[in-house]
């Protein structure tokens, strides 16, 4: 009977030791490198913000996403077990996030304007042309007000395009076309007034 007790005690001890060892393995080696990857991603986000390639709203969303991944990692460590599937899913999500950050950094700066010039410069130039037209008498106040309204609509369109922090090539093209059309309207009205 003592032998049976001894064997059962040894079996129980081995089971407990095995469970403790598997928890240590789940907390350590399988999740190794994740903290380093997260630190690298945070550093790249900060670089993107500093360079103007990632706007503050995008940065907040990326930091929130990174925080959620970190919370998942902490739950895995707290449970003492991370299945191969859980570890793989976490690494895939980190890799996807890293790719999104790199894509954001690689795109042209959101603050870059049309044709390499700030879009605000186009608005300032248009306003200056309208003001000059009124001063010279080639534009009536009514014509100037209508042109300013067109410029304001263009400004709103530009703001809507920039809401995501990025101007696509199509959006840039549309803004250039709208600016060119407004310039032609100013030219036409000023030319008509000249010959009255």
Q: What is this structure, in a nutshell?
A:
The chain has 196 residues and is mostly helical. Helix content is 80%, strand content 0%.
What can you see in these coordinates?
The chain has 196 residues and is mainly α. It folds into two domains: 2-106; 114-194. Helix content is 80%, strand content 0%. The model is unreliable at 19-29 and 110-118 (pLDDT under 50).
Q: Roughly what percent helix?
A: over 70%
Q: What share of residues are in beta strands?
A: under 5%
Q: What overall form do the CA principal axes indicate? A: rod-shaped
Strand/helix succession = HHHHHHH
Which residues form runs of ≥5 with pLDDT under 50? 19-29, 110-118
What is the total number of structural domains? 2
What is the helix tally?
A: 7
Counting DSSP E segments of at least 2 residues, the number of strands comes to 0
Rounded average pLDDT: 76
The gyration radius over C-alpha positions equals 31 Å
Biggest sheet architecture: none
N- to C-terminal separation?
122 Å
Structural class: mainly alpha
List the main descriptive attributes of the protein structure presented here.
196 residues, mainly alpha, 2 domains, 7 helices, rod-shaped
């Amino acid at each position: 009977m003592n032998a049976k007790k001894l064997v059962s005690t040894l079996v129980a001890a081995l089971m407990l030791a095995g469970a403790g060892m598997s928890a240590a393995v789940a907390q350590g080696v399988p999740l190794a490198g994740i903290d380093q990857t997260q630190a690298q991603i945070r550093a790249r986000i900060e670089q993107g913000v500093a360079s103007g390639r990632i706007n503050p709203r995008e940065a907040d969303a990326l930091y929130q996403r990174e925080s959620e991944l970190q919370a998942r990692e902490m739950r895995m460590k707290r449970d003492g077990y991370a299945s191969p599937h859980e570890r793989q899913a976490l690494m895939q999500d980190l890799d996807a996030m890293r790719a999104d950050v790199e894509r954001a950094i690689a795109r042209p700066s959101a603050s870059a304007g049309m044709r390499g010039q700030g879009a605000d410069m186009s608005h300032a130039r248009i306003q200056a042309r309208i003001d000059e037209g009124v001063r010279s008498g080639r534009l009536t106040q009514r014509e100037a007000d209508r042109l300013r309204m067109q410029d304001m609509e263009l400004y709103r369109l530009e703001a809507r395009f920039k809401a995501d922090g990025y101007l696509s090539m199509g959006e840039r093209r549309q803004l250039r076309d709208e600016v060119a059309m407004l310039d032609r309207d100013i030219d036409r009205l000023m030319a008509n007034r000249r010959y009255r």
